[in-house]
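Quick one, tokens below:
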């Protein structure tokens, strides 16, 4: 049985002449002691032949090779916490500016009636809508990239008409200085939009 387990040829004279390994199988059917020896020998053979293989940890080597290739930037200590704190500060500042804008616009919206008051109410309604968009960008910065083109266009229009009105003498520079607030708001929304993570599109099918 030991020779058969090791896939070795049986020496001459071990088995009766004219017989083969099937004689051993027939013997095992009626001999519990030989079956127990065979089972124990099989377990020992498996333990000896199947040895655990120690796999080396190549994580550091692989990461170093990837960074050397330029596919992965080396981590910079302290960069992410600083960026995170700056992002939180920008969100708070943008939200506060939006609240202030709401507080200033609501009284104009509910002001006295009249032709001139109507124009003021239209401006107030526009300011309220803008403040709502700023609040949404502050609360949900991942959506700031959708609102950024709107406020950037607004700032560009404000700057253009303000410069034209000042050159024509229609208003004083101090009168249009209030639009500087929109410039700060646009800058904050732009910062949030830059840091927004774009979710990959889901393919259905």
């Amino acid at each position: 049985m030991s020779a058969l387990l090791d896939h070795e040829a049986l020496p001459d004279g071990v088995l009766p002449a004219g017989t083969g390994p099937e004689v051993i199988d027939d013997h095992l059917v009626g001999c519990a002691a030989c079956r127990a020896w065979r089972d124990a020998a099989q377990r020992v053979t498996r333990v000896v032949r199947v040895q655990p293989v120690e796999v080396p940890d190549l994580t550091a080597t692989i990461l170093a090779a990837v960074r050397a290739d330029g596919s992965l930037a080396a981590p910079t200590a302290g960069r992410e916490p600083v960026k995170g704190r700056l992002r939180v500060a920008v969100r708070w500042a943008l939200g506060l500016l939006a609240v202030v804008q709401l507080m200033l616009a609501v009284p104009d919206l509910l002001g006295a009636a009249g032709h001139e008051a109507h124009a003021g109410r239209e401006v107030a309604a526009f300011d309220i809508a803008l403040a709502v968009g700023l609040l949404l960008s502050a609360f949900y910065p991942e959506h700031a990239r959708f609102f950024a083109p709107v406020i950037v266009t607004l700032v560009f229009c404000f700057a253009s008409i303000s410069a034209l009105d000042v050159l024509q003498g229609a208003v004083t520079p101090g009168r249009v200085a209030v639009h500087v607030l929109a410039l700060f708001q646009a800058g904050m929304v732009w910062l949030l939009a830059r840091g927004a993570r774009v979710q990959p599109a889901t393919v259905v099918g």
